[in-house]
Amino acid sequence: MISGHQVYTVGLFGRNVEIEYNCKEAGDFINFLFQDLPPGDGPTAKRRFELIFVGKPVRMSLWEGEKKIYFGESAHTLAYILANEILHECIVDNNIDQAIHAAAVLWGGKSILLPGKSGSGKSSLAAWLALQGCTYLTDELVLLTQDGLIGAFTRPISLRRATIKALSGGTIGLDLSKCIAGAEGAMVPHRLLNPRWSAATPQLSCIIFPEFINNQPPVLTRLSKAQGCMQLLGCYVNARNFSGHGFSELAENCRNVVSYELKFGSFAGLREVLDPVFGGE
To answer: In this predicted model, what pLDDT tens digit does every residue of 228-275 receive, in sequence order?
Structure first.
């Protein structure tokens, strides 16, 4: 145990959030989630969180002042809740960059945005691409600047157990002792999939809109600029912060890149189908 409480500062998108914690185990838990989000020079958010681990088995609680956000024994549930609280606090009043619900990876000098709602397959696709050698950026959220740069919320990848099994070729090949696992899935450190990683804020190069459909052979369809923009609007989470809902800025980013729609039901055949993106056109 650490004597007294410590404070962990998480830096996201020019804004810092403080998490107070009571012991080394709690600090390790926070570091597992946010080690790739070092604090910057931005202001500190007014909201402050407190994470407390006590007892054997460990009971975990997350607080904001006197408000209890979580209490229980599920590290997986707590990880999901804490990550979402921090993410929300850092984008809630952002009126400079466009927050997009999306995964993102980097292949050489080409950055690929994978926008989609929950269940679309964006996390699964990002994990599979990391196994192919892509640099993982995020599976949850990016901020697009007016110049088309990607700022990524880099956290462990949230995967269902069925996806982990499929990625491992039919068996659970990942060392789940290095993950935060729950009944339905796990938070998987991206370095377990591809150990080569460095922080990056790349220029947006390409957009792929994934749609997971059971038993669907992979099909990649190129979209027009207008189609890409309209689909991206469905994943735009802070539009209310902008005059005109930021539509013109979003359209400008879509105008400068190639967009695709990808329908898939497994990872079989994906490498060949994605050749126009990763192998050149």
So the answer is: 999 999 999 999 998 888 899 889 889 989 999 999 999 999 999 999
Q: Note the Cα 134 to chain centre separation in Å.
A: 15
Measured distance CA(245)–CA(255) in Å, rounded: 17
Predicted local confidence at residue 178, as pLDDT: 92
> Cα–Cα distance between 17 and 276 in angstroms, integer?
40
Exposed, middle or buried: residue 196 (CB in 10 Å: 0-12, 13-18, 19+)?
A: exposed
Mean pLDDT of 57-76: 97
Percent of the residues in the chain that have a pLDDT greater than 70, as a whole number: 96
- According to DSSP, residue 207 is labeled E
181: tokens are 């696992």
Choose between 175 and 171: higher pLDDT. Answer: 175
Q: What is the largest CA-CA distance in the chain?
A: 59
- Give the per-residue pLDDT at 21: 97
- The kind and range of the H/E element at 45 are strand 44-54
What is the pairing mode between strands 204-212 and 185-188?
unpaired
Determine if residue 145 is left, alpha or beta; phi over 0 gives left, psi from -120 to 50 gives alpha, anything else beta: beta
**82, 87, 90, 94 alpha-carbon torsion, rounded to 10°:** -150
- Which pair of structure tokens corresponds to residue 193? 């999939």
Is the peptide bond prior to 57 cis by the omega test (within 30 degrees of 0)?
yes
pLDDT at position 172 over 80 = no
Cβ atoms of 126 and 103 closer than 8 Å: yes
Measured from the Cβ of residue 1, the count of other Cβ atoms closer than 10 Å reads: 10
Alpha-carbon gap, residue 95 to 102, rounded angstroms: 18
241 by Cβ neighbours in 10 Å (0-12 / 13-18 / 19+) ranks as middle
